[in-house]
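Complex record, four chains
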Amino acid sequence: MLTERQLLVLQVIIDEFIQTAQPVGSRSISKKGEVTFSSATIRNEMADLEEMGLIEKTHSSSGRVPSEKGYRFYVDHLLSPFRLSNKEIHSIQETFRDQMLEFERVVQKSAGILSDLTNYTSIILGPEVFETKLKQLQIVPLTPQTAVAILVTNTGHVEHRAFNIPQEIEANDLEKMVNILNDRLYGVPLVQLHEKIFNEVGDLLKTHTRNYEQAFQYLQAALLNEQPAKLYVGGKTNILMQPEFKDLEKVRSLYAMMEKESEIVHLLRSEHPGIHVKIGHENEVDAMQDCSLITASYALGDDQIGTIALLGPTRMEYNRVIKLMNVLSSEMTDTFKSWYQGE
Amino acid sequence: MLTERQLLVLQVIIDEFIQTAQPVGSRSISKKGEVTFSSATIRNEMADLEEMGLIEKTHSSSGRVPSEKGYRFYVDHLLSPFRLSNKEIHSIQETFRDQMLEFERVVQKSAGILSDLTNYTSIILGPEVFETKLKQLQIVPLTPQTAVAILVTNTGHVEHRAFNIPQEIEANDLEKMVNILNDRLYGVPLVQLHEKIFNEVGDLLKTHTRNYEQAFQYLQAALLNEQPAKLYVGGKTNILMQPEFKDLEKVRSLYAMMEKESEIVHLLRSEHPGIHVKIGHENEVDAMQDCSLITASYALGDDQIGTIALLGPTRMEYNRVIKLMNVLSSEMTDTFKSWYQGE
DNA sequence: TTTAGCACTCAACAGACAAGAGTGCTAACA
DNA sequence: TGTTAGCACTCTTGTCTGTTGAGTGCTAAA
């Protein structure tokens, strides 16, 4: 167990290091206002803290630097409640004030403001579309051979996909089919679309349209094939400003990772609701072992979940950032809720 | 005017430097197969070339490096016709083989393949939507207060925008309005939509719908407000691999520039049809003064123009890259043309 | 228990030096 | 007259050395 004084010393070291990115020495600690002991005393405490693995030296006679374990302890026990400045609060409210009616815009803007306010890189996983419900399905013919299928959900989300009309199918049949589908599938969550069609609508379709098989396959390929969750990234270049990334090799591997969207989607999707902090090697991805990743979730309507994340060096302003993400995620949730209330 | 031999020396220097990124010395040139003179002779020629400003030294006793003027000369006069390898041709054809029916996919894939094959950064300016024609306009109500407006063009392009329905307007009116618009505006190029509505359709609408003014304003805001040209960027991280960008500061400014989409759109849009090469300071943007930008245009149907661009260091494989962009732009043009033929 | 003092360690910086690559110039050669 | 061999010179790069300063650990005194 840590003594009061050790807690204080640890706190000062981490706070200081987060500010300056420089190893902090005993003397500079002793000169701090809230510290009343001599540098020698502090050296003793530091030796103890080091023994516990909470801080490290970069070389035998350097000042101390927080270890990952130290950051973990800091995040778990030493986080002081943080007050955002008026300016920050203002700029968030400003962002959400103007009416935005589409997910994309809300999410995009949120990513922007988050990275701007933190100088880290924000990554937002767009809302899962699974639970959103079908509002309308439509097919607009472009040429005799091609058409575009459009799908609108109750959240205002629009998916579209162009496809070839197979020769065996007449425009007539296609239209009938769409009518039936609209009739039967209104309000069905997208995630159930597949089974619903097979179990309930399939037979009906067969009786009404010739060449049901082909037509249906095409439609399915056009619409249900892929709904890749979208990533919104803000402040990608902020990483370059951090002194820990003056090594190009690190930047390279980190950027390479960020280009693999599917991996990131997977990473973020697996998080549970609430705020989570992953420090350094707690991240499984190799390229992120010098980084911390903070994730928070936002809700949409009942339980729909998207994730907002912030990527920075392990030396992160945890308290500020966590506060910020709290505010933002609830702001997003509120915005979405307000849409639902009108329904 | 340059002698045969000077041309040869210049060619070898630039070819060599493009390969190695190292200053090339007289001795290494003399050892080349196609060169038959001694290093001393070459030194004399190099002195002349330097006097003409075509090559430079990095310091008083270093090998030579092409100057921007040298690259310019190289591009204008020394470009040997380049044969793509079978592998490259194959991978391009492969990309365009599978049926893609949407601009986005074609352009996206093109950007990908271009950056993959060159190891530079590709930037493609999506096709201008101005000349594309309205196919269908539609409004899907989401809640009593909100709806999403969808616009489909003859190219299969889909724009959508959610908006608030003002209380004064009844769903009925909105529907009427859409019907009228669809009826009258079918096949009208998007760029003419504005005036067409004002001049021809406005009166008709007024007589049929109450609260025409508001309804119309809303619809207009929803659909016509912005159609920002989309940028598709591929291989952003390739820049990091280039030895000339081991200086973080350069990378930073370059990346910062690339985040300003509007600026790039402006830059690319101003190009005339055909292939253009801008070397170093020929680029007006500060951050690009160590880069070369190669642009080519692609056509869509008659005269619609989009731009594909490639950003790399001035030390670029010009002949290969130019060939590649030629192939790609015509491949894109062909793809789009095939869509039109079916119409 | 705390602190002053001191010897020790190490990174960072600067200067010195050698090696190597490449040049310009001169003089000799075809 | 054009070409080339030879040589002195220049500049970068890497290595080594010594110095400085920040910071530590330990000991002994308060």
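Note: The mean pLDDT of chain A is 88.
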